[in-house]
Amino acid sequence: MTLIVLPFLQKDCKIDFCEVIVLDKLKNKSFKSELPLHLMILPCLFFILVYSYGPMFGAVIAFQKFNPGLGFIKSQWVGWRNFEYIINTPGFLQILWNTIYIAFLKIVWGMVIPIVVALMLNETANKLLKRGIQTSLYLPYFLSWVILAGIIIDIFALKGSVNNIIGIFGVKPIFFLGDNRWFRTVLVLTETWKNFGFGTIIYMAAITSISPNLYEAAIVDGAGRWRQTWHITLPGMRTIIILLATLSLGSVLNAGFDQIFNLYSPMVYQTADIIDTFVYRLGIVQAQYGPSTAVGLFKSAVSLILISSSYYMAYKFAEYRIF
Amino acid sequence: MKHYKESIGRKVFLLTNNISLILITVICLLPFLHIIAVSFSSKLAATAGEVGIIPVDFTFEAYGFVMKKSAFIVALGVSLKRVILGTSIYMLLTILTAYPLSKEVSKFRARTIYAWIFVFTMLFSGGLIPTYIIMVYTGLIDTIWALVIPTSAIVWNIILLLNFFRNIPKELEEAAFLDGAGHMAVLFKVFIPVSLPALATILLFIIVYHWNSWFDGLIYMNFPRNYPLQTYLQTVIVGFNPTNVSPDDLKRLQNISAKAVKAAQIFLGTLPILAVYPFLQRYFVTGIVLGSVKG
Fold first, then answer.
1. Which residues of A touch B233 (CB under 8 A)?
2. B104–A9: do the CB atoms touch at under 8 Å?
3. Nearest Cβ partner for A284 among B158, B160, B219
4. Do residue A15 and residue B215 have CB atoms under 8 angstroms apart?
5. What mean pLDDT is reported for chain B?
């Protein structure tokens, strides 16, 4: 799971009473004054309509025996047949399970590790050390999965660094990227490695926003560092933790296409084939446009429900609003 | 944090804590050090797996080979093109879109409708194949526009910018209107200069995004000469896409890079990110932090 950039929260806008009255009188003139605003939105709106809404209507392919030559309009309509074909594909349930399981593991570890590291960093008094560590930790976040896959393939290879190291302890070489017993672990481990630095920064910010008075009061009451952490620091982070956990609910079907695509191979399809890689192979490689779109549509529909619910819950529990 | 008398137990804890943190950091950085070391090692040493985190038989030969590889240079050109083109279009469109959306409904009645039109695309998407088909029908396949147009509207950052615009004091805007400025003038002469931190954030975001983007190049380009750098790297480092291999490619792939050359390509693929990294720190982090802590 990639940590999302959380936009600025919006404060409730207040409209002056005078403004309202004055504006009422200007109603006739208001469209003229609004015209530039409409024009400014136009270009972006145009692209969104063609390249975001266009595909939404194009999802009708899921119900067709699609022929690119004939297009959406003329291709033969087959109703739910594509969906039946998918559901009856052996291994589809496995793919669903892989997706949810891997995503879940990534979400959990993607929260636990940054929280722990943030707490550890919080104990460090040395500012230079803190900055230095933070800077180093979140470098992998900005690199592409192609780059990271290149590195990972190298160090997890049969004769790579990891096997060299475990060889020192007498363990036989493991083909990590081809072994169904290890592949998911590598996936979760490397994804966490890529993202945890970034998460650490968010949690550190939450920690620094806790009022020092609380700590001082606790010290006066005789609380040691552990109790302070348990009773002040963690509760102080509770809102942001709940917020991030809630928002990540929406991405439980995104197990990380970029990463898995660049690291997987037919040997590990059994444990690592996810919805997105399946859609890719069906559609782009095998040109089975109808079934591929059907799976994609299914995923989009479920994601719509999940994401909307997660935003709604985030709004209810943490007053989080998008705009 | 208040200073208080530290017990021996506390001192030990702090020491272990700091050592663990440093250990974690070093382990996190080791893979990069290893690859950099491999890239500066001789081909023989690299293939034999002798390299740890220090180059063996230090040499620039891998980099020399890469620089002469025309496919790499061509792909680099494509990437530079897309970064410049994509960033310009994106910044312009994002600014132009965030401004009207930041207006209150009283001043811009259609605002909420437009906002929902944009936000809905964050909730639902047509999927991979329909998007691909639309690209085919609009004739963007094998053109630079396929890499640049779809990302011209990233709603998340439009929202980030519009929220930032909202927080600009109304007085500034009203003063400009009273002076007779139109919307465009207000946007470019008042809002932009004040919004530099937010603009820097989204600028860096899109630069990193375009540089790192590889999948769109893979599916929208039929010829390797149109590949951006990361797509090209994907084909040589990770594995080749069976649907895209032409006879020329096969010949090229037969000269598949030795480990050192691959490592050099990996490192070169990260250079721009490393170059802007100090700036990323300042702006990304502030942007994220400001956005997330308010809950």
1. 146-147, 150
2. no
3. B219
4. no
5. 84
Segment A26-34 long-range contacts (CB within 8 Å, at least 24 positions apart)? A30/B109, A34/B107, A34/B108, A34/B109, A34/B110
* pLDDT confidence of residue A231: 87
Residue type at position B48: A
ipTM of this model? 0.85
CA dihedral B72, B78, B81, B84 (to 10 degrees): -70
Residues of A with Cβ-Cβ distance to B24 under 8 angstroms: 117, 137
Judged by average pLDDT, the poorest of A145-159, A164-178, B167-181, B269-283 is B269-283
Neighbours of B176 (CB within 10 A): 18
pLDDT tens-digit profile of A186-227?
Answer: 999 999 999 999 899 889 888 988 888 888 898 888 888 888
- Compute the nearest-CA separation of A90 from chain B (Å): 22
Q: What is the pLDDT of residues B159-168, one digit of tens each?
A: 889 888 988 8
Nearest residue to B200 (alpha-carbon basis) of B280, B101, B289, B98: B280
Q: Mean per-residue pLDDT for B202-218? A: 92
CA–CA min distance B186, chain A (Å): 12
The CA distance from B159 to B111, in Å, is 13
B217 three-class SS = helix
Amino acid at A70: L
Whether residue B260 is predicted with pLDDT greater than 50 in this model: the reply is yes
Q: What is the 3-state secondary structure (H, E, C) of B136-195?
A: HHCCCCCCCHHHHCHHHCCHHHHHHHHHHHHCCCHHHHHHHHHCCCCHHHHHHHHHHHHC
**Are the C-beta atoms of residues B111 and B103 closer than 8 Å to each other?**
yes
User: Could A293 and B238 be called an inter-chain contact, meaning their C-beta atoms sit closer than 8 Å?
Assistant: no
Q: Which amino acid is at B21?
A: L
- In this complex, which of A240, A279, A323 lies closest to B292 when CB atoms are compared? A240
Most confident of A225-229, A297-301, B103-107: A297-301
Q: Which pLDDT score is estimated for B4?
A: 57
* Rounded Cα–Cα distance for residues A263 and B234 (Å): 11
